[in-house]
């Protein structure tokens, strides 16, 4: 794959949203991107942005009449085929849960689709939506290869010591209760990029010990040794680990029983609140957006300050814990909307990790993203570990996996 000969349709079908992009697998350019919101409800809308030959974007909004995922996506894909587009090379689908079944990306056939449906038991919010996206796209684009790229697959290299919970064995054997990890596509892309960048700076990739912290609305950190995930903070579902925008992260499971008893809510309702009404939003009583929290904290808002402090403390604790799984640390790699943009959070995080030898270079950290600092480094040069910022691009990796599997055939 050295020259661009077309684009890949990258589909990310969530429970109430659909994201779709046409991605050039070589350059990473997007000739079209779509964001559908409130999908499955009567007021569903889809914003479709195309980039013309002059490089200028134009956005139009369409309202899919269909009130199901499948119907809405089919409608958007149909509209897409009416446009003047580069040749389509294949369709790459983001799938959240691949269980212990999928260790990498695969071409979708009826058997794979059935397995994705079966894995819905482990991801009831996500896999059914991902599967309906695949079904709709296969119906509209039957002649193209469809590829499933799993959020969990990168973490299938974790050793058993790191993925088992200390719970009754029957839960593991019969119900699949273990840690799977998520954000695998981002961790894989970012760790590959960091390895390339460090290699150009003379750091041998063999034995490289990275902790990748993906800090976005969802947050997770992964220990990557020699290019393979050996440990990660998310577990059976994306609820475990770091504090996130609206998710609690780590928690004593007894909290669920206590709150269910005190409020009369069912367990499912309490878990829903841990997913959507907790995290930065709950701690601050204000917002899940780090931009808002940073502004308000600077003005002295106690909730915003507490939320950021808890967020950073938990993230630092997990980064340090992951160095145990690596037996050391060469580089901490920050990515995601917060990792890439929130210099105040990066600075707070490094301050809490000073004992690992990470010393912030304030100018490099502040400058990051404006005049690109060498290799995205944000710590002072020295013999110890470094910290760097590497922007993630999950859609590009999905496009590349898709083309690789199409070419492989
Ligand atoms: P998602 O996980 O939904 O892909 P993102 O990776 O876009 O989310 O991350 C969203 C988070 O990034 C939000 O908390 C937002 O406040 C933060 N963020 C985005 N841009 C900035 C910025 N310029 N400065 C500080 N934080 C930012």
Key descriptive features of the protein:
409 residues, alpha/beta, Nucleotidyltransferase, domain 5, 8-stranded mixed β-sheet, 5-stranded mixed β-sheet, binds adenosine-5'-diphosphate
**Mean pLDDT metric:** 93
Bound molecules: adenosine-5'-diphosphate
**Architecture of the largest domain, according to CATH?**
2-Layer Sandwich
Annotation field: number of helices? 15
Unreliable residue runs: none
Give the spatial strand order of the biggest sheet: 5-4-3-2-1-6-8-7
Number of domains: 2
Q: Could you say what the CATH topology of the largest domain is called?
A: Nucleotidyltransferase, domain 5
CATH homologous superfamily assignment of the largest domain = ATPase, nucleotide binding domain
**CATH class call of the largest domain:** Alpha Beta
Radius of gyration: 21 Å
H/E series, N to C? Answer: EEEEEHEEHHEHHHEEEHHHHHEHHHEH
Number of strands: 13
Cofactor: Mg(2+); Mn(2+)
Catalytic activity: acetate + ATP = acetyl phosphate + ADP
Keywords: ATP-binding, Cytoplasm, Kinase, Magnesium, Metal-binding, Nucleotide-binding, Transferase
GO cellular component, one term: cytosol
Summarize this, please?
With 409 residues, the chain is an alpha/beta fold.
Question: How does this model look, in words?
Answer:
- Helix 7 packs across helix 8 (about 265-275).
- The protein has 2 domains: about 5-150, ATPase, nucleotide binding domain (Nucleotidyltransferase, domain 5, 2-Layer Sandwich); about 200-395, ATPase, nucleotide binding domain (Nucleotidyltransferase, domain 5).
- The relative contact order is 0.11.
- The chain has helices spanning about 70-80, 110-120, 125-140, 160-165, 170-175, 185-200, 255-265, 265-275, 280-285, 290-300, 300-325, 335-340, 345-350, 360-365, 395-409; strands spanning about 5-15, 20-25, 30-35, 45-50, 55-60, 90-95, 105, 145-150, 210-215, 220-225, 230, 330-335, 385-390.
- It is of the alpha/beta class.
- The strands form 2 sheets. It has an 8-stranded mixed beta sheet, sandwiched between helices. A 5-stranded mixed beta sheet has the order 11-10-9-12-13, sandwiched between helices.
- Bound molecules: adenosine-5'-diphosphate.
- Adenosine-5'-diphosphate (ADP) binds near residues 218, 289 and 336.
